[in-house]
Structure formats: structure tokens, C-alpha cells
Amino acid sequence: MNGTSSSATRWTRRNVLDLEGWSREEILLLLEQARHMDDLLSRPIKKVPALRGKLAVNLFFENSTRTRVSFELAEKMLSADVVNWSAAGSSTSKGETLRDTAWTLEAMGADIVVIRHGAVGAAAYLTRKLKKAVVLNAGDGAHAHPTQGLLDLYTAWKHLGDLEGRKIVILGDVEHSRVARSDARGFAALGCEVVFCGPRTLIPLEVEALGGRFEPDARKAVEGADLVYMLRIQRERQQDGLFPSVDEYHRFWGGTEELMKLARPGALAMHPGPINRGVEIASEIADGEQSVILEQVRSGVAVRMALLYLCAGGAVDA
């Protein structure tokens, strides 16, 4: 597999809350560890005892299928004991605070807490309340989704090799996307050119702080791109009047065959899922040779296994 690793780098992170401030060396160390976990997924017996005796709690205050199942698989493949905690069926639906939930988890002996929450900073709050457990952010508001960002980096790295100087286009609703923010920071840390594109009403003002630049014209943005990342469009944005119609959105910013022809030959088409066919992406692209959408799902398990191992199982030198 292509890609280079840094030497003399040691893993020092206990919690994973965001990709802001991550160094190139840290990311490459994680990608190398994910490669080892990816190899494990191809074996007849996929389970290893790295987290045997550890208790992992998946604490999801928002609905999720891909991320929650991916974390659960990763935890079980590393032999952790797993508890899935749904806010809808827990005491939080009766008014229990996040602080009290944290103390309950501590009393239960949780070693790892994976949290998805609609409030920005919820994962960081848990790190201040939990004395023992490792905290992994599975998405907090529109702030960050670091494991999605890392799995996207890993998928791109496997196909493109060294990402230094590669052009990455993030297309769509960046304003409301935690995925876009984490991806932009991760790709920028690896030396990529990051270009945001979409309706101006869906692009935040702080694009430069995220490590990218804004180009409103999708054709200009995608020209020469190595990777086109199409963000999911939430239909309520159209109801809010942020763009006239889904048909117009697809015509100007949708990932179509015509648009992808402007990218480099062999450019990757990515999407965080679930996809809206005919809105942010055409079926011909979603199901075509350039699409690595299903591979992103597999990468998610490998990357989350790597993070769980590094943060809760034991640091390694690269």
C-alpha cells in the first residue's frame, strides 16, 4: 500500500475530541495503525485481545447507524465488553443531566466512552467529568466528527498515497457539517489544498481558519481535483430557504458525471452517507468506479479500532 509514515513519533493522545491541532506525524501514525487493523479485518478470525477486560460504552444522544455500529464492531473485534446506551431509553429522557450520566458511567467502571451529542463541546465536557475513562467524540453538534475525518483520510491515503499537494474539494453544506470541518483540518494538516464549494448560504465565514478557500463555481472548484467529497444535503435546509430547490442544487453543485470529468483521471468520489441520490450525488457516480463510499465504511471500522487501541490499549512507536 502507498503512503509514508513518520519516524520517532509516539502516541500521546488520551482522548479524541477534534482534529484541530493534530500534526502530520500524528495522523500518519494513526493511518499506519489503521492499516494493521485493516489487515486484521481480512483474516478468517478477526478478533484480538487488545482490549480484553475493558468496558466500552457507546453513548448516543443522536440517531446513528453507521457510526454507532462501526464503533461497536471495532470494540468487539478488540475484545472489549460493550454497552450501547441510547438516550431515548435512558434516564436522560427523564431529565438526567449529562453530568449525572457521566458519574453513573464512572461508577459502572467504564474504561471507554464514545459519545455523540447535539451540543457542541459535549465530548470535551465528559473529559472534565470522567477521571478514568477515555473519551472519543462521535460527533458534537456542527463542531467536529474526528473519526469520520480520519477514516476519510485513511481511505484517500490508501488510494492516492502521499497526500501532500493533493487537491481536495468539499462540496455542499459546509456550514452545518461537522464532517466537513474535521475533514478540512485533517487534509490540510497533511499538506493538501482544500477547496470548499456550494451555495454561499451554506458556506461558513471561517473557511480560512479551517485550512481551505472558497470557490462558488463547482466547475472551477473541481477542475484538477484528486478527490471530490460530496456532503449530504439535509432537505430542511431547502425549506429554510438556504437554496431555491434540490433540483437547482443538483444542477449547480451536484456530483454528476459531467462534473467529475473535470477532475483528474481516477479522482476519488466520497460521501459520508447516507446519500441522497439525485441531490448531492448522481447514482452514476455513487455506484461508479470512482466511488469509494462503501470502502469508507470498512475504513471506519479499521480507523476506530486503531484509535481504541492507541488511546485505551497501549501506545506504540512508529
From TrEMBL:
It catalyses: carbamoyl phosphate + L-aspartate = N-carbamoyl-L-aspartate + phosphate + H(+). GO terms for biological process: 'de novo' pyrimidine nucleobase biosynthetic process; 'de novo' UMP biosynthetic process; amino acid metabolic process. Keywords: Pyrimidine biosynthesis, Transferase. Pfam families: OTCace, OTCace_N. L-aspartate binds at residues 94, 178, 232. Carbamoyl phosphate binds at residues 66-67, 116, 145, 148, 273-274. Its EC number is 2.1.3.2. The keyword Transferase applies. The keyword Transferase applies. One of its GO terms (molecular function) is amino acid binding. GO terms for cellular component: cytosol. Residues 164-310 form the Aspartate/ornithine carbamoyltransferase Asp/Orn-binding domain. Residues 14-156 form the Aspartate/ornithine carbamoyltransferase carbamoyl-P binding domain. It comes from the Bacteria. PROSITE patterns: CARBAMOYLTRANSFERASE. Gene3D superfamilies: Aspartate/ornithine carbamoyltransferase (3.40.50.1370). InterPro entries: Asp/Orn_carbamoyltranf_P-bd, Asp/Orn_carbamoylTrfase, Asp/Orn_carbamoylTrfase_sf, Asp_carbamoyltransf, Asp_carbamoyltransf_Asp/Orn-bd. It is an enzyme of class 2 (transferase). Pathway: Pyrimidine metabolism; UMP biosynthesis via de novo pathway; (S)-dihydroorotate from bicarbonate: step 2/3. Catalyzes the condensation of carbamoyl phosphate and aspartate to form carbamoyl aspartate and inorganic phosphate, the committed step in the de novo pyrimidine nucleotide biosynthesis pathway. PANTHER family: ASPARTATE CARBAMOYLTRANSFERASE, ORNITHINE CARBAMOYLTRANSFERASE, MITOCHONDRIAL. Heterododecamer (2C3:3R2) of six catalytic PyrB chains organized as two trimers (C3), and six regulatory PyrI chains organized as three dimers (R2). Belongs to the aspartate/ornithine carbamoyltransferase superfamily. ATCase family. This is Aspartate carbamoyltransferase. It comes from Aminomonas paucivorans DSM 12260.
